[in-house]
Amino acid sequence: MKEIRAVVGSLGVVGRDEAAECLRLGYCLGRAFWYRGLVAEALAEAVRFLFEEVGARRLEAIHDPGNPNSGRVLRKCGFVYEGVIRRGGRNNQGVYDALGYGLANPRLTSQ
Tens digits of per-residue pLDDT, 74-97? Predict the structure, then answer.
């Protein structure tokens, strides 16, 4: 991807379940940078890092159903839709029923 010399958004671990070795990811992107593949590129690298370097067993993410492009990004990066999490998300418009996605570490699925 072409180098952009500006802060365009954020991506990070926003929650964890230590017993299950599961991390919840969250991301946001400035509207001026939508539809450029930036989130998918960053998310793919975060998945690689968290599985290979950190050793996470599972990653999770949610999104607002009003933003279907976020679901497309998750699926593009291998996440699988797992269902609705009632009142599971909050954004600048309030609480919403979130769509939940998960991804198991393929190196650790047999353990």
Answer: 999 999 999 999 999 998 899 999
Query: In angstroms, rounded to a whole number, what is the distance separating the alpha carbons of residues 82 and 62?
Result: 10
- Residue 91 in tokens: 């954004």
Question: Which contacts of 39-44 are long-range, i.e. CB under 8 A and separated by 24 or more positions?
Answer: 39/9, 39/11, 39/70, 39/73, 40/73, 40/76, 40/77, 41/1, 42/11, 43/11, 43/73, 43/74, 43/77, 44/77
Q: How far apart are CA 84 and CA 76, in angstroms?
A: 19
Position 40, amino acid: A
Q: How many CB atoms lie within 10 A of CB 99?
A: 22
| Range 58-63 average pLDDT | 97
Q: Is the dihedral of CA 35, 41, 44, 46 positive or negative?
A: negative
